[in-house]
Structures are given as structure tokens and as C-alpha cells.
Amino acid sequence: MPAPSTYLPRLKELLEPDGLTCSADDEHCVTFLTVSCAKDRVMTFDEATRIAGKVAYFVNGTDCEVRFDRIADRSVSFYLVDTRYVREFQNRLATGTLASGMPVGEWAAAAMRLPSAYDVGDMPTSAHIDDEVPTQASGYGFLWARRSFFDSTRRTGKWCVSCTAEQVDELWLSMSKAVAAGELLAALASTPGQAATHGGTYLVAVFTKDWTDIADMKRVREMLHRAGVVHEIGYKRDLETDNNVYDTPQEWLVRA
Q1: Residues 104-134: pLDDT tens digits?
Q2: Using an 8 Å Cβ cutoff, are 33 and 22 in contact?
């Protein structure tokens, strides 16, 4: 994959008419790209989607794939992944030759989305924890607590808990501590701006790596029960989220 100094000026030209700026950093097979809007604006989901389309157009015809990372208050970030490296990584993983000098960095582990690679010893085990509580957070998006290699895939899903403003901070602190301790893969919580679009109701979502792993789904549900979530909640696959499935029986894989 070309270095940022090669392609970044051209990408900036593509984004500048919309008042956007971008920056990039490389790690092995992955470039971590951040696109930011002006300080007096908020990055909306619709704008992030349009930006993703422009970035995808920019890398079309190369060995690079665009994979979404996250939306923040005034920015959206992506992984630009060199698919040649991914194929080599998969081959070495399958043949047991991964330790023969191929570097695996934090972004690479997240961006390649290889569930079978999560248990490889070289994978990082640190965690990112947003240091705010939901009711005091700024901006429109979500707070995150996640292991450094976590990313949404076709196999991930989450238990979704609707909370009042009086409930959400305590539950969030409990779940984020569990992520930091390595007991959970990831969790998110909505901010006041996000809750305002849902009648003041907050969301806490607690993720599992594989929705076919029923034992792990039950384990995480039990953790939520011990944290005080004793009413019925739903488990939603990230597939349904990606396909905008809401407010239908098909939204939930299971309720418990």
C-alpha cells in the first residue's frame, strides 16, 4: 500500500470542497484514516456514509479495501487494508508459519477481522475505554469500551439494554470495567445527543465475538443480570444493524 505521503494530498483534494480534512497513519498492512469536519459542525451518520463512498471510490481498482472504524463527534475513521497482506496472513495462519517474522499490529488485528486470529498469541490485549459517563458525555455519538483487536464483523452481535438517565451511568461503568478486566469484548453507550433522538432513552450494548457461540452469549447475559438487568432484553447480530433492520421481529436473534 502506498505511504500516506503518496495518496493523502489527492484524497484531501477530493474532500476539501465539503469542508473536510483528513489525516493518516500507517501500521504494516493498514492505514488508519481519519476524516474530520469543522469545529462548528457535528459528524452525522449520513455525512459519514457519504464520506465512506468517496473514500471507497478513491481506492477503487487498488489492492486496498475500506473498512469502517467509528464515528466520533466531529470525525469518522476507517481502516484502509492491503488485501495482499491479508491473504498472506491467512495463509501463514493456516500453515502455522505466522511466527516467521510477519508483524501484526493493533490496527492490523482489528482491521483484518479474522475471528480465528483473535486467539493468536501475538495479538494485543490492551483496551480502549472512553473516560466519560453517558449522561455527562458531549457530542452525538457513542461511548466505547473495547479490546484493542475488536471490530464489528459478520459474526459479532450484542445484547441491547434500554436505560433511563438514572440507570445508564451505573450500568456503563460496570460493563466498561469488565472490558478493561478482559471479561468482555466490547460495550458501547449512547450519549445525551443520541438519547435525545430516542425520547431520552439511552442504549447500552454489550458485544460478543460470535453469535453462533451460544455459551458465550449466555455468559454475557448472566453478567448483565448480575449487573441488575433482570428484565427481558434482545440480542442483535451486527448483520441486522448493518442492514438497518429495526422495529421488526427479525431485529432480534433471541430475547432473554
Answers
A1: 444 444 444 433 233 333 333 466 788 788 9
A2: yes
